Amino acid sequence: MGPPGPAGGGAFPGGVPVGGGALLRALRFVLKGKRAHFRRFYTNSSALTYPVPPPSALQGLLGAALGLGPEYPKALSGLYLSVRPLGAQRHLFQTVNYLFIKEARLEELRGLSGEGRTQIPLQFLVGEGGRPVAFEVWVASEDAHLLQRLAGALEAPAYPLSLGSAFALAWAEEVGLFPGEVVRGWEGEGLGWWEAARLRLKSPPPGTQVYRDRFPVLLGPGRVPRRVEELALEARGAPLSVVYEGEVLHVEGSVWGVVRV
Description:
By secondary structure, this protein is mainly β. Helices cover 12% and strands 48% of the residues. It has four helices and 14 strands.
């Protein structure tokens, strides 16, 4: 069963349909884990986390579910992705010991060099009240066969799923497929990601928490960000009332701002 849809809204005046309003299949699932850490790529001495998995992390997670290797960005290119947090979350800081490596010498890799190890503050997301941290994820594509494979892979992944780091294991629940449509332009309530440069908020009510940051969308060799976009989202996962010039996914009576990878 799909999520409750935000009320109201309509086509953005002057908006342009994507390919005449592309009819797609859309895959929904809820991603859960005990903790999450999606490192902001521009932090160094302190490892801070995004409030949701970036597009690059979701693409990697889907590749892991299918058992793909370094070829996953090409195999999964063209997907529309969106996400929002589910339930109350809070931050937790822990200090982690990392190897202090400058030259990748054997002594350094064994932690036996003079400087040995270095301590880095690491910020985690955890659920309130001991509950799992959770995210609602949408994946849309014209390739219905690929989405069918992804749905099966999320329920029986080839490689373990994780919420950012290898020590933050995850699992998928409520996996389902739905018809959807991607169009450009929207005025009304919506969920998920929004390109900051194409977004205008309409009288946000008190308590609205808009998070805006630079997110890695695609990674290159060495996991270096190859494409970065400034995105905005409601940090609690609540709908935002927007005037938006970017692409949105209409599905199950709701509207989601999407990012294409």
